[in-house]
């Protein structure tokens, strides 16, 4: 059975289907941004370039059908080039 996001998660742009660690990362970054609006995140690459974050992002793109980017590549083209 598929879980649906709570009202609070929808307001925060959250998704109940995200892995716990990814959800926690989003919550922490969002909290920091709200508590310190002038704070600037200069080094986020190490936070987002994690396999669990990238896998969750890909699953979300895949589940909503995605759209070709500025380069025109579709999800199917990317998946085909990755496997073959």
What does this structure look like?
The protein has 84 residues and is mainly α. Helices cover 56% and strands 0% of the residues. The chain is built from five helices and no strands. The longest helix is centred in the first third of the chain and has 16 residues, at 20-35. The relative contact order is 0.09. The model has no long low-confidence stretch (mean pLDDT 81).
Helix percentage range: 55-70%
Care to count the β-strands? 0
Instruction: Write down the overall geometry.
Output: elongated
- Uncertain residue segments: none
Mean pLDDT: 81
In oligomeric terms, what are we looking at? Answer: single chain
Q: Treating each run of at least 4 consecutive H or I residues as one helix, how many helices?
A: 5
Instruction: Decide which structural class fits the backbone.
Output: mainly alpha
Please summarize the sheet with the most strands: none
H/E series: HHHHH
Distance between the termini: 33 Å
> Using only CA atoms, what is the Rg?
15 Å
Q: What percent strand?
A: under 5%
Reconstruct the topology from this structure.
Layout: H1 7-11, H2 20-35, H3 45-48, H4 51-63, H5 75-83
Q: How is this structure best summarized?
A:
With 84 residues, the protein is mainly α.
Tags for this entry?
0% strand; 56% helix; elongated; single chain; 84 residues; 5 helices; mainly alpha
């Amino acid at each position: 059975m598929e879980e649906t996001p709570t009202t609070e998660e929808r307001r925060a742009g959250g998704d109940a289907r995200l892995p716990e660690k990814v959800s926690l990362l989003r919550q922490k970054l969002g909290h920091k941004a709200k508590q310190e609006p002038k704070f600037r995140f200069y080094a986020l690459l190490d936070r987002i370039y994690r396999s669990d974050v990238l896998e969750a992002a890909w699953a979300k793109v895949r589940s909503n059908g995605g759209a070709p980017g500025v380069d025109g590549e579709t999800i199917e083209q990317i998946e085909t080039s990755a496997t073959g």
